[in-house]
């Protein structure tokens, strides 16, 4: 059998609003297409879009440069159509991203359980879905599905893809006997330059940024609440990202109204993936109190851009303060987030650029390409 790999994810190119998983999958395909034949099953439109991508056909395999892709209308595809697509090629593995996707994890897992899929070899990458913070959001619904999955042995025999020690711990918290293969996310694209360019920074002035989907998990509201307590200096706080949850964004807008005049908060819209690093390079600090990330592509991108991270401790990027790289802080210690922002605000150019360069060098030191490439190959062997 050929090394045909079926990848399922809610969103993929040309979409860009789906966040880290789109980048992770694209990196896998770009690096391993010579050894595996990749087939990607995904939605026919980007996150929250009413219209499908222009000029595409649905429910059929389309040839791209290094992969084949099938776009589906998730609201109208039947179980029968879904089954036919999944069985249209002899696949060695089915690789699912996320645990709670109704269309791209739950539906195919039920088809597998009922014996309707030819390929029984399944790899599931939770992509942060098992982090405690993420599980707290709509907890009753999520734990209800977890209970159903356990009672029906829905995930028996699957291989779990963990991208970090933290994610391995989260998987084992729910599936104690899980068969886990560890492969970190492949390193990001080439840095902006071999040497980081110094940034201008005045004492008591700060350019701060948040880039992510606007949903409770990414915790923008917490960031805004921290800013409410800062009444010294001058801060420009810019927000980028798709308004995935309009209800959540309305909550954030109410918080913005109560922030003091020394802090200017602006929503700047959405970014294409190719724009993220260049945009981050315009700022001093990246404020991201996320409820949980299995990797956090945007954190890596921030450090590649010399943008000092102030993040939660619910990511693999830990002990940043000790390395003078940034801050990773418990969400139960709001005062430490405020203190970190004020510390960054008070830095002059020399002190800031020390942190900025430390962040840049730190993330380069973590990019062991050859080792991670071998780990990723072994997922599918």
UniProtKB/TrEMBL annotation:
Record flagged with keyword Transferase: yes
Annotated PANTHER family: GLYCOSYLTRANSFERASE
GO MF assignments: glycosyltransferase activity
UniProt protein name: Glycosyl transferase family 1
Short name of any one Pfam family annotated for the protein: Glycos_transf_1
Presence of keyword Transferase: yes
Domain Glycosyl transferase family, residue spans: 198-361
Listed InterPro entries: Glyco_trans_1 (IPR001296)
Key words of the record: Transferase
Domain of life assignment: Bacteria
């Amino acid at each position: 059998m050929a090394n045909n790999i079926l990848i399922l994810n809610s969103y993929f190119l040309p979409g860009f609003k789906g966040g880290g998983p789109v980048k992770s999958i694209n990196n896998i395909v770009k690096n391993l297409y010579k050894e595996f034949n990749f087939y990607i099953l995904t939605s026919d439109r980007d996150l929250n879009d009413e219209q499908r991508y222009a000029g595409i056909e649905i429910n059929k395999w389309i040839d791209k440069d290094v992969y084949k892709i099938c776009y589906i209308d998730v609201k109208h595809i039947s179980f029968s159509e879904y089954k036919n697509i999944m069985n249209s090629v002899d696949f060695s593995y089915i690789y699912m991203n996320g645990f709670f996707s109704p269309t791209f994890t739950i539906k195919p897992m039920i088809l597998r359980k009922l014996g309707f899929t030819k390929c029984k070899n399944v790899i599931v990458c939770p992509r942060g879905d098992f982090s405690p913070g993420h599980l707290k959001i709509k907890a009753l619904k999520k734990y209800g599905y977890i209970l159903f999955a356990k009672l029906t042995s829905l995930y028996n025999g699957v291989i779990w893809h963990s991208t970090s020690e933290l994610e391995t711990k989260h998987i084992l918290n729910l599936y104690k006997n899980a068969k886990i293969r560890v492969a970190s996310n492949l390193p990001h694209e080439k840095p902006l330059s071999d040497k980081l360019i110094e940034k201008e920074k005045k004492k008591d002035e700060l350019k701060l940024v948040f880039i992510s989907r606007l949903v409770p998990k990414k915790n923008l509201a917490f960031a805004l609440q921290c800013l409410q307590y800062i009444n010294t200096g001058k801060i420009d706080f810019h927000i980028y990202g798709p308004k995935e949850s309009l209800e959540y964004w309305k909550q954030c807008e109410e918080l913005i109204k109560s922030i003091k005049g020394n802090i200017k908060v602006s929503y700047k819209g959405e970014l294409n993936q190719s724009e993220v690093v260049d945009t981050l390079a315009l700022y001093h600090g990246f404020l991201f109190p996320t409820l949980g990330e299995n990797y956090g592509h945007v954190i890596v991108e921030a450090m590649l851009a010399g943008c000092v991270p102030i993040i939660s401790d619910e990511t693999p990027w830990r002990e940043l303060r000790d390395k003078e790289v940034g801050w990773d802080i418990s969400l139960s210690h709001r005062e430490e987030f405020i203190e970190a922002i004020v510390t960054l605000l008070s830095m002059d150019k020399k002190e800031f650029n020390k942190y900025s360069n430390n962040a840049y060098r730190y993330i380069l030191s973590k990019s062991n390409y050859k080792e991670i490439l071998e780990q990723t190959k072994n997922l599918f062997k």
